[in-house]
Structure formats: structure tokens, C-alpha cells
């Protein structure tokens, strides 16, 4: 039987000219199997031998003990969400509905199931899927596999991998340092869809390698020609082969195959043939071969190229030939190198392109149209049908739109917003006035491109004829605008809807309409409370709002946001607490974490710290259960604020440090402010103001001055750091800036950021009490509106600083008020200042009593600075106390402390990693550091060591 077009005799398998590259890849595989994560991206133009090198490496270098998972990407499948992942894990049997019981999906890996199931499977509904939870679950699936054996992931033609699979590869590689993992990728370069940016920082590390395959040199070309030719080649033939092929192995093989097919020898007589074929050898040969075949062969070949499948029944139906004839043609295509050797796919994408090149675009579109109909009628997954439809100029029939909608729903179920966006976009173009469809698209774009989402929402607002539809669009606009720091626009949009909606709905509207109105009101407050310039509008709206009962999720969220607005205005702490108690009591998490976060904010200002901790801990538990990392980081940052205001700087810093470590792994880390602030405050109190200043200097959030919460907390942290560095004027400048900003925004809560008290105390301690009187009076006026123990205590502290004649009485009252509150650090300051005043008046005995309490309170707060100062005063008063050298536990970072506490409580490394959303490697590194710092040999000694260091175990 004569050979087919360009058929080779196996030179690719011998990898002529690739010995060095193969050795490098083998070395990387061995290193990975020894426990050092490796990633290799093999790139080069089509036909350069990337796939051959990959196969050779896996066949001859991958240890038998390793788990090797492979995937080959295809252009038509580039939009199939998690398609590469599903092909990789296919041999493990994890893509069927009963896979949930598989041992490898234990623990955190269970979150991966929706990404693995076949399209239309029983995964979570689109409303409950979480993109990050799927990535997190797939990470733990890989970890589970690595606990059994080294893991090798090989992805060929990764430039056509779907976005979700690429995101997962990047996510995995950034979290597997020091683990037995090797990721081998091949990619065409240059290509219109580079993958390097997704993996760039990993590839540039010590365990990353970008391996660009060069053309074969003269010796390599000569070896191939000698191996593939019948007889010795002439010098001119060799030179022509090298020149025409450019050293590309695929082109060279096809050239030589055609020479053989024509019965020519590799001499000068073959030179005219080489010149005729030219550089586009694959296209020329395929086109020439196809032109010489019967019509039914051409139809089958084109059907295979369009379907990218070789199922005889589907190919027969599309080509219009009998099944048995189609089967025979498929065998012919395989023998002639149109199909790969295994007969399951086209040999090369260059071949596939050549099979369709002679069709004019209209004919090609008709063929794809028929292919989509065929796949749809055959009940193939919606994503396969959609892949064909997306290649058409415009899906124009109802069934096409239905198929695209089904594919979008499957993509959402898999947590693949990019694919769902691609499927929904033609639907929106076909039905531009369908507001619900545009809102669905905007919701997905909000996860990947919020600015584009806002444009669609603007269009929805303009085209919506029904006010209810406009209201739904306005709510979505408000939540999306927050992500891109455009909340004033959201306030304007929501305000316009609020002006019109009550009259449209009427006083006796249905329950669904009342809930919609409540949603709009709540979204208005959420957006309006973000920036200073919109706070006056929020106060105006709140005054006009009726008190909701709290019977629905939207009503509970509105209650919480109304409480926040009232608290910032310094109005009635009793009413604010009553509102949040109703909101938190019935909160079911249906609207995300806004209710819990808002309630915690108010409870903190009201001094109800235990209740606030309960609320935020519920959110933390819910976030962990669903792997919602953004909510988890927000909750950790919020809890850090509560703990800091309660005077627990160590625990506050630990929470904030964990939040920072998690955020640094995510794309949105630049928007994280509160954890940075809390880490800096903790460091300053623990005697590291220089480090604290360095932490604050890394903040890069744009327009910081515009925001209500982040800006003022940031300024207070800077003031604290400057004062601890001895820069009183710098600290005062930050505090006064806070005061001016709060006045402009109309914030009148004395405890939101008590800049007035801190400035008054700094001035008094600097001998400038006269300058502080006005500040004290300002604070006392604010406290009259928000009269809670901590606020009264701070006002008494500040008044005592400027009224030395009544200082003892004022400070005694401050101690009495603050010792019954949750403000332990402020209580410490009151005890210390009272001790100092008594000492100044000659009552050393009474002074010692209060200064001992001050030392104890400062130690319990974790404030080395305050403890040192209180001890110095106690010694001056005649008290005896060992020098404060600092416990060894104080040398632990916040993350080390949190990990140590969990390990001491019995959690395994894996449980710690899953709970804190960090990697196993991170936990191991932290524990090693903890053992060294505490002087212990292992986790069994941790409980005693932590207790010995007076480190409270977890609540």
C-alpha cells in the first residue's frame, strides 16, 4: 500500500535535534517527583515538535510512580468551561454524577465537583455557584492526588485552553511551592492568545522554565532527510529541504513524504517538486490530495474538520454519506495522515484549516449551521452546540438562542463567567431590549469586567420600559459600581429610581414589589455610605424612610444599613443597636455579608463587642463553608477592628495578617485596606512602629481620601505610628486632617475614629493643654449624642488632661466607666493616668494600685509600649516588678500565632490550611517558625508552650 501524503517513518519519535531539550524536561520531571514544584512551557511555531517532545518526555522520563494526567486542547473547545480540567481528570472517573463519593474528592476538594460534572449535571444552581470555591476545590483535589504520588499535568496546545482551566493552572501553581507537582505545557508562539501573562510570575521563578524550541539546524535537517529518504540525498536537495522547511520538522516530514509518494529519489530530480510545493507544504499537499478525491471523501473530510470529532454516525449525518461509507473514508483519512494515528482527531490543526480553506465563507457557515443542528438534535451537550454557533456570523433562529442560553446556564453552574459571557453576548445582541437578559450578562461581567458591566446596566436602565425592571437594574448597578469605586454614580441612579418607584407601586403593593423597593433603598444606603460626598444624601433618605419590620432578607439588610447611617451621624445608640439586633437575629445570609458586616460595625461603636463577634463569626463560618474568600477577608478585617477596639492588639493583628496573606494570592489584593491598617496598629502597639510605617506605605488604593471607612482608619493608624516614632507634629497633622474630613462628611460619632481624644491627649502630654480645650469640648458635644461607656470614658480622659485641678476625680470616674466596658485599652490608659496623677500629688501607695492594674491590662492587651511605660511609672512609685522583656510568643507574626493556636487545639495541617484559605506549605513554614521561636520540638508541645507564655487558646 502506498504511503499517504507526507507520511513519515517515525523520525519524530526519535526526536532528532532535541536531545538537550529532552534532557532538560526530564531533569524537571525528576525534580518535581522529588518534591520540588516545576512548570515547563514548551513553545514554538506550528510543527516545530512541541507535542513530540512532550510525548517523548512522558514516555521516557516520567517515573512510573507518578500520576500522569494529560489533555490536548482544540480551538473549537476553547470556550468549554473547565474542559481541560475535565479531560485531565477523566481517567480518574470524576466526571459522572456519582463521583461525589470518590475518596480523592474528600474534604475541601468537594467544592470542585460542579466543575467536573458533565454539562447539565446536578451541580449547584447558577445562583449558588462560586467561582473561587471551584478553584479552591480543584486545588485541594490536586493536593489529594499529590498525597498519594507525584503529580504530572501535561497540557498540549495550551493556547486553546479555556479560561477557567488556565485560571486554575495559575491558581494551583501559585499555591504548590515545595510540592511534588510538574506542569508541562506546550503552546504555539507567536499566537493571538498568549498564555504567558497568566503564568508569567511562576515561569520566571527558579522552578519555572520557558523552553522555546528552535528550528532544526543543518545537522538536524540532514539527519531527518537521511532517515526519511530512499537513498542518499544530493547536496542541493539537502539545501533545498533546509531552506524550504526552515528547519520545521513537520514541514520537512511532509516535503519528504510527498517526494516519496511521487516515487522520486532525494536528488536534483526532485528539486522542481520541492519548489512547486513551497513553504506552505501542509496546505498545498492537503489541498492537492483532497482535490484528487471523490466528492464523498471531500465531504467526510470537511465534516471531520468542522465537528473535530470522528464519530462515524455524526460524520455520516453531516456529510450526507452512509455510515459504513463514512467509516471507510475515516480509515482512508487516517492512512493518509489527515487524521492522527489513533484516528480520533485531525492530525494537526494546520491540516484541519487546509481541509476548509477551499470553501467560501457562506458555504463554511452553512456547514457549521448544519453541524450545530445535528449536534443539537443528537442531544449533545449545549456547549458543543454553542461552540459551532459562536463561529457563525449571527445566531438567527430561536433554537440557536435556546442552545446558547442552555450553554450559558451550564457555564454559570460550573462557575465559568467568561464562557457564560461569551454565550450570552449573542443573545443580548439578538434581543437588545430584553432587560433581564442584559442584567444576567451584567452580573457575570461584574465578576470579570465591572466597567463593561456598568455599560450594559446603563443600557438596561435606558431601555427598560417597566419601572420594576429599571429598579432591578439600578440595584445591580449599585453593587457593581462599588467594585470600581464609582459609588456616587450608583447613588444618582438609585436615587432617581427611588423618587419614582413608591408612586408607581402604590401604598398597597404586593409583597414582591415591597421587597423590590426595599432592595433599592438598601442598595442606595450601601452605595451612599461608601464615600464622603454622598453621606448627606444618605442621611436625607434615611430620615424619610419608614422603619422596616425585618421580616424579609431585604428588610433586614435595610435595617442594618439604616443603623450604620444613624451610627455615623451619632444618633441614638439604643435605636441603632435595636435595629441591628433584629437584623442579625434573623439574618440568613441570603443577601451576602452586608447585613452581618454592617451590624458588626454598629455593635462595635455601641460597645456591644461580644454580640459583634458573634455576628462576624457567623459570616466567617458561612464564608468558609462556601469558600467565599472575598467575604472571608472582609470578615477577618472586620473582626480585627472589633478586637483592636476591645484592646486585643495581638488577636487583631493575627486576624489582619491572615487576611493579608490570603488577599496577596488574589487579583483584588490592591483593594484590601483594613487588614493593612490593623496589622500596622498591632505592630505599633507591640513596639515596632518602623515596621508599621513600612506596612502602611505599601497601600496603593486610589482616591483614599474619598472613602468613609478606609480613609479615616488609615489616617488614625498613621497618627498612631507617627506618635510612637516620636513625631508629635506629624501625628497631630494626621489627626486634624481626620477631623476636617469627618466634619465635611457630617460624621458625628465620637467613636468612629476618636481623633479628638487622641489629639487632646497628645497635646496635653506635650505641655500644650491650652490648645486641646476646644478639642475636648468638641468631643463632649459628640458624646452627648452617642452616650455609651467608651465614649464617656474617652471624654473624661480628655477632660482630665486639660483640667488638672479636677484630674483625679475625672480619672476615677473614667476608670469606673471604662472598667465596665469592653474597651480594655482605654481602661488601661485611665488607670495609668490616674496612677500618674496620684503619684504627682504624693500618694504613691494609691498610685501603685492603679499602675499595677495598668501594667496588667497593657500586658493583656498585648501592648508592649503601654506595658513598658506603666512599669516605669510603677517603679517610680516604689513598686517592684521584674523588667518586661516580652514573651517569646510576642515574636510570632499574626499568621504564625493563628496557626499555632489552631495546631495547639488539635487541628491538622490540612484543616488549618482549609480553614485559613492558605496552602499546606504555608502552614508548614509557619509551624516550623513557631517551633523555633517558642523553643519546642513539635506540635505536641505547643499547648503547654502557649499556656506557659500566657497565650490564650482559641475561643
TrEMBL record:
<dbReference type="GO" id="GO:0005737">
    <property type="term" value="C:cytoplasm"/>
</dbReference>
<dbReference type="GO" id="GO:0006355">
    <property type="term" value="P:regulation of DNA-templated transcription"/>
</dbReference>
<dbReference type="InterPro" id="IPR011990">
    <property type="entry name" value="TPR-like_helical_dom_sf"/>
</dbReference>
<dbReference type="Pfam" id="PF00196">
    <property type="entry name" value="GerE"/>
</dbReference>
<dbReference type="GO" id="GO:0005524">
    <property type="term" value="F:ATP binding"/>
</dbReference>
<dbReference type="InterPro" id="IPR016032">
    <property type="entry name" value="Sig_transdc_resp-reg_C-effctor"/>
</dbReference>
<dbReference type="GO" id="GO:0003677">
    <property type="term" value="F:DNA binding"/>
</dbReference>
<dbReference type="InterPro" id="IPR041664">
    <property type="entry name" value="AAA_16"/>
</dbReference>
<dbReference type="InterPro" id="IPR036388">
    <property type="entry name" value="WH-like_DNA-bd_sf"/>
</dbReference>
<dbReference type="InterPro" id="IPR027417">
    <property type="entry name" value="P-loop_NTPase"/>
</dbReference>
<keyword id="KW-0547">Nucleotide-binding</keyword>
<dbReference type="GO" id="GO:0004016">
    <property type="term" value="F:adenylate cyclase activity"/>
</dbReference>
<feature type="domain" description="HTH luxR-type">
    <location>
        <begin position="885"/>
        <end position="950"/>
    </location>
</feature>
<protein>
    <submittedName>
        <fullName>LuxR family transcriptional regulator</fullName>
    </submittedName>
</protein>
<dbReference type="InterPro" id="IPR000792">
    <property type="entry name" value="Tscrpt_reg_LuxR_C"/>
</dbReference>
<dbReference type="Pfam" id="PF13191">
    <property type="entry name" value="AAA_16"/>
</dbReference>
<keyword id="KW-0067">ATP-binding</keyword>
